[in-house]
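agent: user wants the full assembly modeled, not chains individually. Plan: 1) parse entity lines 2) check alphabet per entity 3) run joint structure prediction 4) return tokens. Steps 1-2 passed, two entities, 416 residues total. Proceeding.
--- entities ---
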Amino acid sequence: MPVAMLRGGASARLILASGSATRADMLTRAGLAFDVAPAAVDEDSIKASLKADGATAHQLADTLAELKAARISAQNPGAFVVGADQVLVLDQQWFDKPADRDEAGRNLQSLAGKSHQLVSAAVVLRGGERLWGHTDHATLLMRALSEEFIDHYLDAAGDAVLDSVGCYQLEGLGAQLFQRVDGDYFTILGMPLFPLLDFLRGHDFIPA
Amino acid sequence: MPVAMLRGGASARLILASGSATRADMLTRAGLAFDVAPAAVDEDSIKASLKADGATAHQLADTLAELKAARISAQNPGAFVVGADQVLVLDQQWFDKPADRDEAGRNLQSLAGKSHQLVSAAVVLRGGERLWGHTDHATLLMRALSEEFIDHYLDAAGDAVLDSVGCYQLEGLGAQLFQRVDGDYFTILGMPLFPLLDFLRGHDFIPA
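--- prediction returned ---
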């Protein structure tokens, strides 16, 4: 698909504080102009700390999104900075991105035959101040998977599975993993796009 | 995204009886191997006839999908032929693809500020016999749109809007049109993918 632009008159810079190619692609396809500045935060220690505090997955995704945006906002005080994060929840357990193929295989075995949730958060900061935030979730029912299928799938999908907390890309071979999916597609991809576009429209980054 | 394959052992040919690049892309990304053979049916007269009979949009989409598949199945009796169709319904009225930019503008004015349904059907025929069918729908709430915005949007989106009955591609600039979307993403793109993959898995076109 050719990429067309549909921009508003905002003069402030828009920065996406995420290294996810999928999130950048979502905003590009929706017609926006923006810069990308991936922010590194220590996700493991934040997760552990929030878990100990009894936080929900929505709170975790929102906190991680805000911390990423805050790091980039501090370096770019005039810009609108979008932070985003996604958390996978199965049986009240938060999953991490697989480190390697073996872990991806074990994760898929855990997810197979069950429903899990993908919780996605987006926030916007300017000058370190939080202007907006939204969290949404989708529910995905994975079909039962044989060990043989998981092997074939990991062979075919290659390293792309390591980019996703669920070891799948729904817009690719990952479609073969599912029986049913309920929820917003963009939330599944990693960011609640419609509410974010609504906020950006209100600040003239896209036309009303 | 690189295109990877994940095929089963079926020896029969699989044919997609649709000229839609989006539908072919869905199957390709899901890892399938297939041929494309667009089928022309007289949609206008079929719609008029079914309308007169009091048919539902689900029945219309299913009938059009089956007629397209039947045409191709007659020419390829040993193949599994997938037919698909999509109908847009607003206030009990069925929409057609816009013929030109003016009609696209009028359609968007009708859709703006309201919810409409996209009804998608897929069927599979072999040797002229219907083996399987599935129909699903999604509900999309379009935001209120100014005439000025519609103009900007049509300028930016170009001829791509004429390929879609709703004058939008949700995976492109069309995202700017919506406030909320409920339903399966693949149904919105034009074909209920998960049920179709389930059927194809049962016939070894993809691995179980």
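agent: reporting back. Chain B has a mean pLDDT of 95. The beta strands of chain B are 14-16, 35-36, 80-90, 93-95, 115-126, 129-142, 178-182.
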